[in-house]
Batch of 2 targets.
Target 1
Amino acid sequence: MLATYPYQGRPFAFDPAAPLDISLPLAPGAGQVNCFWAEPVKFEVIRVGSFVGSVAQGGSTNYQRVHLTPHGNGTHTECYGHISAEPQATLDRCLRRFLFVARLVSVQARPQPNGDEVVLLEDVRRELESGPDANLWPEALVLRTLPNHKSKRTRQYSGTNPTYLEPALAEYLAAHHIEHLLLDLPSVDREEDGGQLLAHHAFWQYPAATRTAATITELIFVPDEVEDGLYLLNLQVTSLALDASPSKPILYALYDGR
Ligand SMILES: N[C@@H](CC(=O)c1ccccc1NC=O)C(=O)O
């Protein structure tokens, strides 16, 4: 059974029973994706007096404390609070809608003279502005970088100078009102850039004309079976009052409902 979703005056349809999960799980231990020198996720059983928060250890319930680093441990969504000192710049305040029309685009990063691998504006632009979906401008862009190795699920990125975006691409997305950017990389910016974070600044237009509702979601993984095209995106986050939260972006194939 299809549900309808109106967008730009058109009745699109999607199947609520056919979610495509593009998040990575936040599991404990060293086998998970990691970047920016984050400690691995850790779950700790809570003990209070004779109570033990582990059914396996004889307790009545599981009750654990979680240590995690949103920017370093897995799929996460961030707002402009990532690069701002403003106390109100928290994701729970910035992200107030959770369904968006999204375009999934696959793109190959290009080696630069200095050895960096960079996703270029011209490659993304050519994809976005061509094909059957080019006439419908989305609210969100999901970038799948090629090659799409499954090792993206477990890669240890720290110190490897991972692929990042050309700042002009972030500028283009802001100028074209793409509010939500999702990608399978640790960051839109170079791992070590002396704190410039050029693409972050360009995407949020911070501080000159800050796009306070815009978000960036990093460390997603889009399986090969999911084809480039139009989707309904459900961007789920926790209500952490922080610049970033672990997140669970879900895609639903979007059909022309006419
Ligand atoms: N490239 C920045 C560091 C940076 O971007 C960063 C550092 C810690 C956690 C997350 C970061 N960026 C994520 O997008 C720098 O060199 O100062």
Note: The pocket of N'-Formylkynurenine is lined by residues 36, 71, 187, 189-195, 197 (CB under 6 Å).
Target 2
Amino acid sequence: MSRPYDQPIVDIVNYVYHHSLNQDDEATWKCARTALLDAMGCAIETAATSTECRKLLGPVIEGTVVPDGFRVPGTELQVDPVKGAFDLGVLIRYLDHNDALGGAEWGHPSDNLGAILPVMDWLSRESLSGRRVHDGPPLTMQTLLIALVKAYEIQGCYQMRNAFNAYGIDHVVLVKLASTAVVCWLLGMTDEQAMATISHVWMDGHPNRVYRSGANTIPRKGWAAGDAARRAVQLALLVQDGQPGAPGALTAQPWGFWERTFGEAGFLLPRPFGSWTVQNVLFKSMPVEGHAISAVEAAILQGRRFRQRGLSDPLKQIQRIDLRTTAAAFLIVNKHGPLHNAADRDHCIQYVVALAFLKGSPPEAADYLDKSPWANSEELAALRERIVVQSDPRLTEDYLDLDKKSIGAGMTVHLADGSSLPQILIEYPVGHARNPKTPAAVQEKFFQNMGLMFSATEISRILGAVQNPDTLISDFIDLFVQPPAKARF
Ligand SMILES: C[C@H](C(=O)O)[C@@](O)(CC(=O)O)C(=O)O
């Protein structure tokens, strides 16, 4: 190596290439298998229910045949690994139902599977057909779980203290970073090549998060992670084919990434890379923006209390709803004015709270669609206007505290007769690692999602494959292949 790469680049490569995860740490592997199954369930849910998303899938030129290509779960499609990363990333992420993690930055660690699985599946098929001699790690379930834990960890550690959003950069930059690192390893690239590829990540243009916020929230927020996964695979393949990297991509003056963003101090990491993130993700029990889930739980409970009091007309009987929440929720999903599309609705805390209060149960993906009765309900629109959202310093502190990592919201309903339904505070919603109801809820979600396309026997085959460390990834992916499903909506 002629010039040394910037230290954060070296650290990531050392972790991915030379840090051994403890094979006996069953807690980590159990979480990794759960995360994998949850993400695959989300992909199947999207494939089975979202006609809007299915339009984004498949080869650029219809009918293209890719020998040994990645077989896109929940479909009959077979595509190259770059488009495959986009397609799987989109399927996992589109309905905002996949796992999430908050910090100074936030995001969805399972987005990385969008890159990991297509690359492993394609490599596995190419090796089997003899088209390629693979000299990376074995293309098995065990390797997949290692790649998953490491990608989660890179993304998670970076998220904790580095607010990319403060520079307008979308959090999928971390999907690009983490996916790139593990994909290089999976491809059997050298350390030096992996560093070169990561330097390309920092030199890359990064999407501006405007598509997730305010009146500009559009479906791109559902494909941005797929785009990042795609780019990770593409950059790795470019470097594998001989492209060099730029060792000072972060620190160079005046054009390095830090000079334009975080400054000389660079990135802050809360702890050395290990296997913390995979054990601390928030599994989404409902397709709701992560920071709004506690508020939805509180709304369901308050709605129940409201009805138990014999009240039935929210517009006549509710004067105001006060909602305290984290600064992140306030920044991301506090929204007034017209809502233009499904993405816009699932990123509006007032919409999901009013919906849950009126409906008495959690939002479902169909409740966000333009044609949903809720999207057109005057009652919901009027109740939404009565919800006053405030950023709460203590909830924000606890959200950023790595020993607490709560994701809280408190809701008080002020009634027209001057009385109130006292605050309900939810700090650890179902899906949070600390909530005892989480394992059962994640399991139920998986069976529900998979049941949209697969029989009980097929589902138990998938569960068996995940338990076996030697399962070949192409055999695993074959278990998810389906002809086009009849779209539900
Ligand atoms: C991480 C978030 C989520 O839980 O859904 C987020 O809403 C964050 C954001 O918009 O920045 C997301 O859509 O990725």
Note: The pocket of LVQFOSPG is lined by residues 96, 100, 106-108, 171, 212, 221, 289-290, 332 (CB under 6 Å).
